[in-house]
Amino acid sequence: MTASPTRPPLRILDAAGSPADLGRIHGEAFAEEIQAYANDRVELVASGLWSGGPLDRSEVLAIADSMLPAHEAFDADLFTELLAMADAAGISPAEAVIVGGFTDFVDTVRAVVGGPMPLSVVEDDCTAAIVPDNRAGGAGLFGQTWDMHDTATDHVALLRLRPDDAPDTIVFTTTGCLGQIGMNSEGVCVGINNLVGIDGQRGVAWPSVVRGMLKTSSADDALKVLLDADLAGAHNFLIFDRNGVGHNVEAMPSERAVVSLEDEPIVHTNHTLDPATTAVQAPKDGGLMASSSTRLETARKFLAEGPIDEERLFEMTREPDAICQVAVEPYHIESSGAAVMRPATGDFWACWGRPSDNDYEHVSFDA
User: Fold this and answer.
1) Which CATH code of 3.40.1190.10, 3.40.50.2000, 1.10.1240.10, 3.60.60.10 fits the domain covering 128-363?
2) Which of 54, 140, 201, 303 is the most exposed, fewest CB within 10 Å of its CB?
3) Domain-by-domain residue ranges, the chain?
């Protein structure tokens, strides 16, 4: 067991302009890093650890290339941004799909290839919660850890975006990815937990869906974007807005299960809770299922009583026994970062690396 290293403050990249401008700035800023990360992800799929059998690199890229039309159909501006980022970083559009939407991509690979579901699929660990207004002094909160294979931690960054034709947006992400967790200047925030499905297809990967939802001005509008999306793989999405409206959506390519926020927090981890989505969830390794169930119950207990503010959510993400994960054999999963948002006030706090070892930073929409 090794300690997560501390480092200087979270990297923040500011970008403004057209979709092509946003992508170019992103790609140029992190070009070498994106190239290395993309290559690692392609090789991981080719190895067969995620697809049920080894594949040639050309076969992996051909599957990713076949998903590009779905990305363009979902949102032409975000597709332009994706292509511009890939060009500026020196990778192909297919590689951009893989490096940004890896966990959805492997759902697609398994569906296309038809191999057995490998229990070695491990990158599916995050703990997230929406706290309603009545439990948070009238201004509700969203918070989550972002847990991943520990090799992803060094690629964490924050994008502060000022698109020409969409709300300003702050997104927690990794280099080469359009966005993973975020909040826009209209007071809409979106978070995620990964799920693993058996119904993957050549659809749009989840980072584009997150960014598409962050172009809206309400949780209900963001929900519509998600329900209409032709998804590539399985994810759980949490949506919350400045008016206190919230939704949790277990979103599989073939099924969507929506639970709307009421008077108590919604907590979600990395397994489905609805019968319809459970029917298309892939088998989970016993240790990972135990982790997901324990994190769910731990977070629920942590938020069960009393008023909740941002400090309490910070502490939830630092909970040492289940939620704040340390990289150990054989999975090497750690809490690579975390984010807490209060959409009613526009407050955004982000943490690089394990929250137990690193401080949260308050980030404003102003550069």
Assistant:
1) 3.60.60.10
2) 54
3) 18-113, 128-363
